[in-house]
Design a protein that fits this description.
Blueprint lengths: L1 E2 L5 E5 L5 E5 L2 E2 L13 H12 L4 E2 L5 H13 L3 H9 L9 E2 L4 H22 L6 E2 L8 H12 L3 H14 L2 H8 L5 H8 L1 H10 L3 H25 L1
Parallel strand pairs: 6-7
Antiparallel strand pairs: 1-5, 2-3, 3-4
Helix pairs in contact: 2-6, 3-5, 3-6, 4-7, 6-7, 6-10, 7-8, 8-10
């Protein structure tokens, strides 16, 4: 954290015609030194509001829209192929592909929640992922993984930033892709990705550390969905 150094924040139009954010009249840059050039004014307004909300000290963790936008510009923009490959690799170990063998109620819940998402992914992207029982690794076909890579690479840098955060928070590329396609929303994504943990909590009781971890992941998912909402506004 650093001491707040600005009096006001505002949306501005940059030289390239894109939306930007200025602090005391000076356009901000990303942590990597690039211009904070944003595709829509709604996102610029949200980032300006995050800067305006800083009191006393600047707290980067309290500015998720700024963080996601900077990631899109600094990381995806400069290392796009590597980022796409990193995200696509999750398809080889997707949460939805590893099912419980018992109890029957959990088996049924996983099938009812997860299988429609896998079926959607197969229909929409031509990526049919194999399912197994237990946690032993199951290999996915090169064709399915290649199809997932193509689908991710078709997104712009800002959406890739969002799907990267979603995939990590959900432990599932398929859930993240369904969110980006507006197939499901934040609440459904949280429920699907935390299905096993919620089941265990209901059976064995709450655990403060596990609850805090789930809350942090839920916030990451919610932030990424809001980012996508702003991009689509």
């Amino acid at each position: 954290m650093t001491k707040r150094f600005h009096a006001d924040s505002a949306v501005v139009v940059l030289e390239d015609g894109a939306a930007g954010v200025a602090l005391d009249g000076r356009p901000i840059r990303t942590p990597g030194g690039a211009a904070m050039s944003l595709p829509v004014s709604a996102l610029a307004e949200a980032i300006a509001a995050e800067w305006a909300a800083q009191e006393g000290t600047v707290r980067p963790y309290s500015m998720p829209m700024m963080r996601l936008a900077a990631t899109a510009i600094d990381r995806v923009g400069r290392e796009r192929d590597a980022v796409v490959a990193e995200i696509a690799a999750y398809g080889g170990n997707d949460l939805l592909c590893y099912r419980a063998g018992a109890p029957e109620a959990l088996v049924r819940k996983q099938a009812e929640t997860w299988q429609p998402l896998l079926d959607w992914c197969a229909r929409t992207h031509g990526a049919r992922l194999a399912v197994t029982e237990g946690v032993t690794h199951i290999g996915q076909s090169p064709e399915a993984l290649a199809a997932l890579t193509v689908a991710i690479d078709a997104m712009d840098d800002f959406r890739i930033s969002a799907i990267s955060q979603l995939t990590a928070a959900c432990g599932s590329l398929v859930i993240a892709m369904a969110v980006c396609a507006r197939r499901i929303g934040a609440e459904d994504a949280i429920a699907a990705s935390q299905l096993d943990e919620a089941w265990q909590a209901e059976k064995w009781g709450q655990d403060s550390e596990a609850d805090a971890r789930r809350e942090n992941l839920a916030r990451e998912i919610t932030d990424a969905v809001r980012f996508l909402d702003l991009l689509d506004s």
